[in-house]
Amino acid sequence: MSTPKKPTIWGQEPAVIAYVFNALLAFLVTIPALGLTETAAGYVSTIGSGVLALIVAWQTRPWVISTLTGAVSTILTGVSHFWLVLTPAQTAAFILLLSAVLGLVLRGQVSPKSGPIAPIVVIEEKLT
After folding, report:
1. Whole-angstrom distance, CA of residue 100 vs CA of residue 93
2. Sign of the CA dihedral 9, 14, 18, 21?
3. What whole-number distance in Å separates Cα of residue 78 and Cα of residue 107?
4. pLDDT number for residue 43
5. 1-5, 12-16, 55-59, 90-94: least confident range
6. Long-range contact list for 78-85, CB < 8 A, 24+ apart?
7. Tens digit of each residue's pLDDT (9 = 90 or more) over 11-69
8. What is the rounded average pLDDT for all residues in the chain?
9. DSSP-assigned states of every residue in the chain
């Protein structure tokens, strides 16, 4: 007897997927063709990081670890845009690095809210 996996929107790796989206957002806001000013890019990136952090906290357990990691990510994203004297390319590289490191650290500490990756198999043995 096995229990089926629950279908999820974010799959079995919500933290990894969200941090990939965070890195992608950091890259996209640096594209000049989008016409974002540096301040607008900072707001978009910081708010996007916060929203993705909330999604990760909602999709994983224990949610406290996800929330703390997301808060660090969002705060450092804001700091890189508004307080550090970095070029837009350096800011994007910093956020890409931050997303990679926090995504890897968080991945080992949380599990998806939907349950285990593989179905659980229960073996019943008859005693004779």
Report:
1. 11
2. negative
3. 23
4. 95
5. 1-5
6. 78/42, 78/46, 81/38, 81/41, 81/42, 81/43, 81/45, 81/46, 82/42
7. 667 888 888 898 899 889 888 888 999 899 999 999 999 999 999 888 888 888 889 88
8. 82
9. -EEPPPP-SSTT-HHHHHHHHHHHHHHHTT-GGG---HHHHHHHHHHHHHHHHHHHHHHEESHHHHHHHHHHHHHHHHHHHHTS---HHHHHHHHHHHHHHHHHHHHTT-EETT--SSPEE-------
**Backbone phi, then psi, for 39, in 5-degree steps?**
-65, -45
What per-residue confidence (pLDDT) applies to 5? 55
Give, in degrees to the nearest 5, the angle at Cα 15 between 41 and 96: 40
pTM to 2 decimal places: 0.75
* Burial class (CB within 10 angstroms; exposed 0-12, middle 13-18, buried 19+) of 99: buried
